[in-house]
Specification:
Blueprint (H helix, E strand, L loop, with lengths): L4 H9 L10 E4 L4 E3 L13 E4 L2 H6 L3 E2 L20 H10 L2 H14 L3 H12 L3 H19 L4 H7 L5 H12 L3 H11 L14 E6 L7 H10 L6 E4 L2 E7 L4 E8 L4 E7 L5 H12 L5 H8 L6 H6 L11 H10 L5 H15 L1 E2 L9 E2 L3 H4 L11 H16 L10 H9 L6 H10 L12 H9 L6 H7 L7 H9 L12
Parallel strand pairs: 2-4
Antiparallel strand pairs: 1-2, 1-3, 5-9, 6-7, 7-8, 8-9, 10-11
Helix pairs in contact: 3-4, 3-6, 6-8, 6-9, 7-8, 14-17, 14-19, 18-19
Length: 496
Amino acid sequence: MHTDRERCERAVRSKDARFDGWFFTAVLTTGIYCRPSCPVVPPKTENMVFHPSAAACQQAGFRACKRCRPDASPGSPAWNARADSVARAVRLIQDGVVDREGVPGLASRLGYSARQLERQLRAELGAGPLALARAQRAQTARILIETTALPMAEVAFAAGFASVRSFNDTVRTVFALAPGALRERAARTGGRAGAAAPARTAGAIALRLPFRAPLTPGNLFGHLAATAVPGVEEWRDGAYRRTLSLPYGHGIVSLSPRPDHVACRLSLTDPRDLTVAISSCRRLLDLDADPVAVDGQLAADPGLAPLVHEAPGRRVPRTVDAAEFAVRAVLGQQVSTAAARTHAARLVAAHGVPVDDPDGGLTHLFPAAEALAGLDPASLALPKARRATLIGLVEALASGALRLGPDSDWTEARAALAALPGFGPWTVESIAMRALGDPDAFLPTDLGVRRAASLLGLPAAPAALTTRAAPWRPWRAYATQYLWATGDHPVNRLPA
C-alpha cells in the first residue's frame, strides 16, 4: 500500500487507525516516523514519504514518534493471508529465528540462499532480514525497559543484542532517548494506548496487544475457554490463561479482552523468550487480521450479511503451537468437546512437563511430539483406528517428516497431513485453519457448518456449499466462524 501515495495521504489526514501497520509515514523535516493514526497535526504533503515497515524507516534514518509509538502498531495483515516465502520469512523473524539462528538459518528454513532472501525482503519491505530483526529487538527492548526492573545489561541480552553497546546505540537511534531516560519517561507517563503499560511486578511483564477494530471477543475467547485442556489452560477472572513452551524455557500468559486492546501478562523463566511469546499470543488471537477487508467481502453475500452486521470483527481462534493443535485435532475426531478435553488432559498428566504456576491452576506444558513418539498404543483410551492415527502423527512430527509451524507451506503441509492414516478433510482443514493460520481454510463437512448453512438457506451438502462459498475466498475461515456463531454453544460466548 505504501506505493499508493494518494491513499496513504488520505489515511494520514483522517488519522485512520485501520491502516496502522499497513504502512508508516516518515517526515522529512523532523526525521520522525509515525503510524497513520498519529494524533499530532499531519505534516505538509511534500514532507511525507511512506515506507512499508518500521525497519525500512529506521534504515532510512528516521526515529520512532514518541506520541504514537509506531513500533507498537498491529502487524501488517498481509503476512497472515499469504504463504509465500516473504510472508513465511516475516513470521519466522517475528518468532526470533534470526536472533537464534542468524540469516543463514532463516534462509535455510525457507530453501533459499541468504542473498536471494535479502533481495525478496528488500523488494517488499524496504529492509533485509537483519534490519527487520533489529527493529524487532528494539521493540522488545523498549517493552522490557518500560515494564520490568531488569538491569539494562540483562535487557540488552534478553532482547537479542550481541552487546550492551549495540543495545544502547539502537535504542538511542530508534527512540531518540537513552535506555535510562526511556525508563524514566515511562514511569512518568504511565504508558500510552497501544504501548506497554508499566507494571514492574517481579517476574511478570504486563503489556497491551493492539488490534484493528472491530473485534468481537465472544467466539475468540469462548472457543479457547470451552476447549481448554485442564492443567495447560484455564479461564479465570475474565482472563484466558495457559502455559507456553518457549525456546529458552517456559512461560505462563494471561490474556484479557479490553475495548481497545488485549491485556497481556507474561511470566517467563527467561526474558529472552519475550519476542516469541508476544508473537505466539498475537497469532493465537489472530490480532493482526484486517476485519474491515474480511467483513466487507463476507457481508456482500446476502446469506452472511446479517451475521456480519450483528457481530463484526470475528477472529479465528488459533494456537500457540501447531504440533500441539494437530495432536488435539486427532483427539477431537468424532467426539464431543468435553471428551476431547478429557483425552488431552490424560496425555498432559502422563507426559507433560510439570511447571510451577504462582497463581495456581496451571500444572504442565503440553507434551512435545518427541515425548509422545514412544507411546504404548494400548495405554490410550481411544478406538484402535484413532490410536493408529495419533501414533502416526506424533512419529511424523518427531522425525521431522511432517513440519508444522510459521515456516510451513500450506499446500505442502496439507498434502503431508492427508497422506497420514486417519486424516480426512475435516482434520486437515481444522489444522490448516487453526494451526497453520490459512485464512481460506474451510470445513464444509463440519456438522455445525452444515446446520448453520441450512438455517441460513444455504446449501448444506459439502460439495454444493463449497461451490456456494467461492465468493467468500480468501476468507472462508472467517466465514466458518460466523456460521458456527449461529449455534448455541459455549464456544460462541465469553464465559461468565
